[in-house]
């Protein structure tokens, strides 16, 4: 192995993927739909009652509307690779679901990568905002 390949640390999405239908359904119910240039996305807290935040998870849904199987698989592969490169930006304790549009097929990988980074940064900001709102105690209204 040369020095350049030793510097490249191979990350994986193995422990960060949503897989169960129930997890997708819960995330859809708890989140609101957000839009970006080439995809829509959902961000939902995993468990409000957990003492320690669990690792972030990400799910990809690529419907048949986007094309034939080989096109959908290509979209999935490209998005997984972009997510794998930025797995450290996923907000802990939250589930993120990405719905790409057909335009993702025509995007250059650098544009897709930048789009994923924008979504992850916005998701992290939304997650921190939600965490501070949950941490604040409810202030009772003054009695009149």
Folded structure, characterized:
There is one protein chain. The model is unreliable at 3-8 (pLDDT under 50). With 144 residues, this protein is an alpha+beta fold. The protein has helices spanning 3-7, 21-30, 69-85, 109-135, and strands at 33-35, 39-45, 57-60, 94-100. Helix 3 packs across helix 4. The termini are far apart.
Short note summarizing the structure:
This protein has helices at 3-7, 21-30, 69-85, 109-135; strands at 33-35, 39-45, 57-60, 94-100. It is α+β, with helices and mostly antiparallel strands.
Number of strands: 4
What is the N-to-C order of secondary-structure elements (H for helix, E for strand)?
Answer: HHEEEHEH
Q: Which second-level CATH architecture applies?
A: 2-Layer Sandwich
Report how far apart the termini are.
75 Å
The gyration radius over C-alpha positions equals 18 Å
CATH topology: Ribosomal Protein S5, domain 2
Write the layout of secondary structure elements.
Elements lengths: L2 H5 L13 H10 L2 E3 L3 E7 L11 E4 L8 H17 L8 E7 L8 H27 L9
Parallel strand pairs: 3-4
Antiparallel strand pairs: 1-2, 2-4
Helix pairs in contact: 3-4
Features:
144 residues; alpha+beta; Ribosomal Protein S5, domain 2; four-stranded mixed beta sheet; 4 helices; 41% helix; elongated; disordered N terminus
